[in-house]
Amino acid sequence: MTNKSHLKKLIIGAVCFIFIATGSGITGQHSAHAAASNPNTAIQENAATVSSVSSKKKAAIIALSKSLMGKVRYKFGVNNPSKLWFDCSSFTKYVFASQGISLKWGSAAQSKQGVYVAKKNLQPGDLVFFSVSKPGRVNHVGIYIGNGKFIQNTIGKSINGVIISDLNAGSYPKRYITARRVG
After folding, report:
1. Cα separations (Å) of 97 from 64, 154, 155?
2. Could you tell me how far CA 68 lies from the centroid of its own chain?
3. One-character DSSP codes across 3-59
4. What positions does the domain NlpC/P60 occupy (predicted)?
5. C-alpha radius of gyration, the chain, whole number
6. 137 burial class (0-12, 13-18, 19+ CB within 10 angstroms)?
7. C-beta neighbour count of 114 within 10 angstroms
8. Angle at alpha carbon of residue 167, lines to 76 and 158, rounded to 5°
9. pLDDT in tens, 16-68
10. I need a surface site. Which of 90, 101, 106, 166 has the fewest CB within 10 A?
11. In Å, how far are 88, 99, 161 from 170, measured between CA atoms?
């Protein structure tokens, strides 16, 4: 067996596993025919479905985050879902877990999960990371929600809880460090 055909079989097997695990699958005569006649077409169709599932999860994460505005309290170093007391990273951990996406606790740890995303390529549901106390060091996280905005759990002069902020306003542009796509 050549490396190329072995790779195709591995990819097809992985895609099939993903669809069995998520309850999705190839349906209809066209898709079944495409899978039989051209494995690459089936992979593309299945990848689009996986992307759609991921987009739905990210939309649900954003919706839950917004629904918690005015209900969550920021407490540094705290992860208490029963009282809705979180720091920034336990908040992201909590809302991502609602969609079966596991994040570590700690913004620095979360900044190493998933895959890197350039700021210009941000999509809703991506994690955005900042330095808010030690320059150049990740110590704050939020969730990008689109249109240059992100949602975060934070504390400030007149803020304690979940708010929506602008990536391009205030001190955020100079404090922005990186972004990651998880899930």
Report:
1. 11, 19, 23
2. 18
3. HHHHHHHHHHHHHHHHHHHHT----HHHHHHHHHH-HHHHHHHHHHHHHHHHHHHHH
4. 55-183
5. 20
6. middle
7. 16
8. 45
9. 333 333 343 333 333 333 334 444 444 444 444 445 568 999 999 999 999 99
10. 166
11. 19, 31, 18
DSSP 140-170: EEEEEEETTEEEEEEE-SS-EEEEEEETTST
Residues 6+ apart with CB under 8 A from 171: none
Q: Are 96 and 182 in contact (CB under 8 A)?
A: yes
The answer to whether residues 60 and 99 touch, using CB atoms and an 8 Å cutoff, is yes
pLDDT tens-digit map of 110-169: 999 999 999 999 999 999 999 998 889 999 999 999 999 999 999 999 999 999 999 999
For the entire predicted model, the pTM comes to 0.73
Determine what percent of the chain falls in helix, strand and coil, rounding each to the nearest 5.
Answer: 45, 20, 35
**Cα torsion angle, 68, 50, 117, 149, sign:** negative
Question: Torsion angle, CA of 159/163/164/165, rounded to 10 degrees?
Answer: 30
- Is residue 132 within 8 Å of residue 141, measured between CB atoms? no
